[in-house]
Write a structure and sequence with these properties.
Number of helices: 11
Distance between the termini: 28 Å
Strand order of the largest sheet: 3-2-1-4-6-5
Shape: elongated
Strand content: 5-15%
Structural class: alpha/beta
Oligomer: single chain
Length: 286
């Protein structure tokens, strides 16, 4: 398949705005997708974050392989990173996240209180598109104050939102200007972080089938009755047959098959899946 690249013009402005507002923040909340944690780490954020403390939030953990998620939590923690897993659509996640934000600001808060100052701490919320940044802001604030959606690029502006003891800066999802790692680029396509309109969904479906056949074959068997994992195209056609996507003349409706497969993955109908293995990233550097 051809290389995936996606960097809309508004992202350049968004990253510049984020860098300009960095010094107003006490820390960063970097929202990752627990199904593809390393693909959703934007290395370009290092320049923006500077030396600010960063909380890495493995969101959508309810859709991910829990053993691998715990492995990534361990990996991040061993590298000295603040990290939690959660599902930002679940109200119970609010307490977990706030506890971590309080922990990160403990020293600053103690110094401020020693001077008789009661201050509000500010965090920038950053991440790849469609990882759940605005859902997080709505969770912490207790209101639907940030616009959300299930497609990449819903948030376009940088803006402050007051969320109780914290002010959160909701920012647009931003990609690196180019994808050097096409393995990660495909993962971003699978989870919906890249605009579907610029992708060849047939190619994406075939690549996803190949990866699932290698890592979670039982999921394909249970959902579609696939038992032969040798070739991608026959698996693809089995998906079409199982879903009844047959055109006049007996041809397969690959377009509907691709959409159904990718939607099944994104909605968790294939089970709890994590595309990456923490053991492969022990030497990863931010």
């Amino acid at each position: 398949m051809k290389n995936i690249q996606w960097f809309p013009g508004h992202m350049t402005r968004a990253m510049r705005d984020m860098e300009e507002k960095r010094d107003l923040c006490d820390g960063i909340v970097c929202v990752l997708d627990a199904r593809a944690p390393m693909a959703t780490v934007n290395k370009n954020f290092k320049k923006i974050f500077g030396e600010k403390p960063v909380l890495y939030l493995l969101n959508k953990a309810d859709l991910a392989d829990s053993a691998k998620t715990d492995g990534f939590i361990k990996l991040f923690t061993e590298k000295g990173k603040y990290c939690v897993k959660c599902d930002c659509t679940n109200p119970s996640a609010k307490k977990i996240i706030l506890q971590k934000l309080i922990q990160i600001t403990d020293e600053k808060r103690a110094r401020a209180q020693a001077k008789g100052v009661n201050r509000v701490f500010r965090f920038m919320v950053a991440g790849i598109p469609n990882t759940g940044k605005s859902t997080l802001v709505n969770l912490i604030s207790g209101q639907k104050r940030a616009k959300t959606g299930d497609k990449a690029g819903v948030t376009r502006d940088v803006r402050w939102l007051k969320c109780g003891a914290f002010d959160l800066l909701d920012t647009p999802g931003t990609m690196p200007p180019s994808f050097e790692n096409q393995y990660h680029a495909r993962h971003l396509a699978y989870i919906g972080s890249i605009n579907d309109d610029i992708l060849d969904m047939d190619d994406i479906a075939l690549e996803l089938l190949g990866e699932l056949a290698e890592k979670y074959p039982q999921s394909l068997t249970e959902r579609y009755g696939i038992t032969d994992f040798e070739e991608k195209l026959p698996m693809y056609e089995t998906v079409c047959k199982r879903r009844g996507f047959i055109l006049r003349g007996g041809e397969f409706d690959y377009e509907r098959g691709a959409k159904a497969l990718i939607d099944d993955f994104r909605k968790g109908r294939l089970g709890k899946i994590t595309l990456e293995n923490p053991k492969e990233y022990e030497d990863f550097t931010w």
